[in-house]
Amino acid sequence: MRVWTSFAAACALAVGAGSIAVAKESAPAVKAIQQMSPAEMERVRTAGAQILFWSDAQRSANFRSMEAQFPGTTAKAGTPRALPKGAALPVSDAEIEAFMTAQNVAGLMVIQDGKVRLERYGLGLGAQDRWTSFSVAKSFTSTLVGAAVKDGLITSVDDPVTKYVPELKGSGYDGVSVKQILTMTSGVKWNEDYTDPNSDVVKMLSVAVKPGEDPNSAYMKTLPREAEPGTKWVYKTGETNLIGVIVQRATGKTLTEYAEEKIVKPAGFEGDLFWMVDSAGQNVGGCCLSIRLADYARMGLFAMEGGAGQVPEGWFAEAGKEQAPIGLPGFGYGYQWWTYPGGAWGGQGIFGQAILIVPEKKLVIAVVSNWPKASGADLRIPQLQFFQQLAMAAD
Predict the structure, then answer these.
(1) Keywords in UniProt for this one (predicted)?
(2) pTM to 2 decimal places
(3) Which of 132, 169, 211, 254 has most Cβ atoms within 10 angstroms of its Cβ?
(4) What is the pLDDT of residues 76-116, one digit of tens each?
(5) Are 113 and 257 in contact (CB under 8 A)?
(6) How far apart are CA 367 and CA 100, in angstroms?
(7) Which of 133, 174, 119, 178 is closest to 323 using CA atoms?
(8) How far apart are CA 97 and CA 266, in angstroms?
(9) Distance between CA 143 and CA 150 in Å, rounded?
(10) Taking the chain, what is the end-to-end CA distance rounded to the nearest angstrom?
């Protein structure tokens, strides 16, 4: 099998979490989607510091109940896509249990040809429960860009970011295109170290803003440029937050409203989608939606099958192929999707969340987990190795 011929290269994946009427030239006021109490706003502003440094017990409890921890909004499910049972994968229970124990897995599902070939749960999670996505949300947000292009609301991914977020003019984002933030090649300096309380990824939500001001652009416009746009890939959750701002301004809808219309219902989600908001009441584009395990798998099917007419033809062919090298042969980054050797691609989130798409086998793997730390090659490589084992068993 061609997929993932070099697992040594997978160490690079540890850096990642693990993925429109034309905007006016003056900065529009942020659309507040709900009134938050001062206590709720403080929880949002300190979310990075809270989540990244929760104990194991706190993570296991809170990852399946993020709506009880932070404010957010909900996209309602419609008619669910049926996922009939298929033949069980020829992988032993002992091997599956060993993987789930070693990786602290809450849910694992494998779908091939639209049929469920493996479904397991742990950590008290049930089929009707939601689990947080972390950066798997990035792949949802980029899909909404495609939907906005299809709707004629974003003119082109080659548009400058400042066309939609004009308050970034005069910053490191001058001359940066929407495509370059989709591929994380803006050239703007960023620190995504999840263990550093002073990193950008921890501090980005804590910036104090005036009423109606966007906290994402308020933080991102302070960052210096370190490379010419399009020349250097650096993983930046803050840029996916900017993508979320672009989508919300261009469509005039929240991410949950637009996702309900363009993903949740067309993909046939069975359960509602919860999406955390920032201190301005906007959904956080780079993180923190919550759905059922089977709906993560449905998202993988939706993307693998081309997006059910909700995005331009060929969108996922571009989104799921290497647009930016990450320094290792065969591995790369698309439009907020990771790319792997052999044509596989998928979404990743810290603490072990993942959707993997293997088009040559019509195969989707979804996993939700509570790793003992946010990221690391010592965890991501064994995960990918087990995914390879599952894919090979599907021959």
Answers:
(1) Hydrolase, Signal
(2) 0.90
(3) 132
(4) 999 999 999 999 999 999 999 999 999 999 999 999 999 99
(5) no
(6) 10
(7) 178
(8) 33
(9) 11
(10) 9
